[in-house]
Recover the amino acids of this structure.
């Protein structure tokens, strides 16, 4: 028998009832956030599946390091893409922008011989300019983002061919290559492993626990329903075990990749921006209900403009990482990257209609795609079949989103 709890009831009372009124309330507690919690369960299941299918090779220290290096730029793109999707837009141009920014950096550093950091700054400047270009047409002219970025995909791919004169430029200096291929190893020593990597992993777990506890406390203060404390502890322990196992494997390979440090900083910054700033709340408001956001005084045009400027910046960061990883710039660089970033956001729980999604969800969605791609490569699965599997996973993720919406509508 279900229990109806008034909206004004204290959160502690809600939690207590959930623990003592039977199976139905426990089920409600566990499924209340199925959209966000289900993706973590799916990620663990997929990792376990490929570990079995590959005989443990997918979880080897060397392979885990390779996953970080090979898919870091997709995760960087996914951070920006999920914010674009939350606001109710889409960006189809990011792969072309990755190619263009890498090309600009390569021309300056390789062909013109300027210092590597000048190439990095130039790439970021180009990314910001591209983002401002898209933001102007979307926010101030009113053209749908789908059309603007589709045009941008063609435009900036063509500019990439022009900048590179349709040839590949390589190699970059060693310093530039370290952006995507460098490691921090031996700072704190360790007997057969890198202790510094383990320290960073432990700090990450501690930060996650403190942040989760503060969020839980804030929800109790505002009389919002929360999970029971034992479940909260269980979640923190589970996440901590996964993170430390990951750090342990990295520590026994080549240490902490520089690119993982870059990615970690971006995740922390954008998690704070999306959850704890006015700008982040405005993004959710625009995607959730545009009319209500406008009536509430949100400067919709300015917010939309800066969303695309930010996407351009992160595309430039991904372009730098990818060109450093490839040790050069190719006219075909970034091909289909936009689809991988979009898939990561949707698999991670972003809603097709906007207003829903998280940075961490997009990261987990991207990691699911990365683990599947890497696992199928280790198994020798044909490339065409890999595309089929990825497409089905994306379709199922969106179908799950639609199903949740219909179920929520029916329950009202």
């Amino acid at each position: 028998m279900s229990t109806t709890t008034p909206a004004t009831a204290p959160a502690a009372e809600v939690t207590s009832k959930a623990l003592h009124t039977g199976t139905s309330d426990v089920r409600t507690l566990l499924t209340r956030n199925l959209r966000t919690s289900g993706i973590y369960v799916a990620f663990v299941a997929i990792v376990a599946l490929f570990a079995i299918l590959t005989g443990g090779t997918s979880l080897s220290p060397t392979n885990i390091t390779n996953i970080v290096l090979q898919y870091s730029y997709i995760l960087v793109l996914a951070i920006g893409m999920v914010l674009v999707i939350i606001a109710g837009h889409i960006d189809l141009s990011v792969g072309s922008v990755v190619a263009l920014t890498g090309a600009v950096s390569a021309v300056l550093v390789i062909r013109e011989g300027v210092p590597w950091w000048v190439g990095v700054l130039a790439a970021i400047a180009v990314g910001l300019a591209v983002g401002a270009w898209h933001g102007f047409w979307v926010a101030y002219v009113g053209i749908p983002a789908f059309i603007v970025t589709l045009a941008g995909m063609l435009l900036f791919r063509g500019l990439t061919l022009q900048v590179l004169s349709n040839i590949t430029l390589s190699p970059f200096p060693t310093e530039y290559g370290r952006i995507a291929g460098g490691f921090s190893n031996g700072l704190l020593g360790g007997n057969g492993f890198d202790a510094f990597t383990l320290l960073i992993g432990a700090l990450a777990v501690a930060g996650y626990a403190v942040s989760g506890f503060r969020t839980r406390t804030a929800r109790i203060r505002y009389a919002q329903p929360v999970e029971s404390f034992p479940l909260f502890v269980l979640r923190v322990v589970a996440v901590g075990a996964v993170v430390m196992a990951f750090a342990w494997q990295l520590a026994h390979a080549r240490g902490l990749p520089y690119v993982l440090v870059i990615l970690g900083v971006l995740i922390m910054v954008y998690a704070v921006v999306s959850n704890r700033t006015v700008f982040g709340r405005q993004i959710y408001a625009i995607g959730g209900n545009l009319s209500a956001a406008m009536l509430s005084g949100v400067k919709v045009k300015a917010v939309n403009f800066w969303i695309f400027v930010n996407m351009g910046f992160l595309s430039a960061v991904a372009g730098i990482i990818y060109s450093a990883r490839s040790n050069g710039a190719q006219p075909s660089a970034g091909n289909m990257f936009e689809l991988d970033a979009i898939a990561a956001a949707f698999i991670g729980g972003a809603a097709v209609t906007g207003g829903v999604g998280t940075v961490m969800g997009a990261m987990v969605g991207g990691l699911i795609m990365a683990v599947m791609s890497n696992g199928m490569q280790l198994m020798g699965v044909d490339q065409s079949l890999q595309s089929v599997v990825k497409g089905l996973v994306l379709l199922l993720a969106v179908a799950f989103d639609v199903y949740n919406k219909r179920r929520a509508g029916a329950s009202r």
